[in-house]
Amino acid sequence: MLQRGINRATFYYWCKKLEVVSEPISEPFTSFKRLAALAPAVEQQPFLKVTLPNGASVTFYEEISIDHLKRLLAC
After folding, report:
1. Contacts with 1 (C-beta within 8 Å, 6 or more apart), sequence order
2. Burial 5-25 (b: 16+ CB within 10 A, else e)
3. Which domain holds residue 55?
4. Which H or E element spans position 18?
5. For 60-71, what is the mean pLDDT?
6. Alpha helices, DSSP H, located in 4-65
7. What's the sign of the alpha-carbon dihedral 38, 42, 43, 45?
8. Which has more confidence, 32 or 1?
9. Torsions phi, psi of 2, nearest 5?
10. Residue 42 CA neighbour count, 13 Å, CB half
11. Is residue 75 part of a domain?
12. Is pLDDT larger for residue 21 or for residue 6?
């Protein structure tokens, strides 16, 4: 432990702390699960579409407040 710059007390402190926080994994990860996307029942029209100067676009399907839109675009 000292060869990696960690003293023994610090090492065991973190070992004990992480044992309390971590939960055991119930089963090992073996493969991906196949997911199927469902088509929407009714084709929904966009409420608002904003095209940014760099060509990216943001589409809103529900009403959005002007203040919320300003905060999103300020990022």
Report:
1. 7, 8, 11
2. eeeeeeeeeeeeeeeeeeeee
3. 44-75
4. helix 8-21
5. 89
6. 8-21
7. negative
8. 32
9. -65, -25
10. 4
11. yes
12. 6
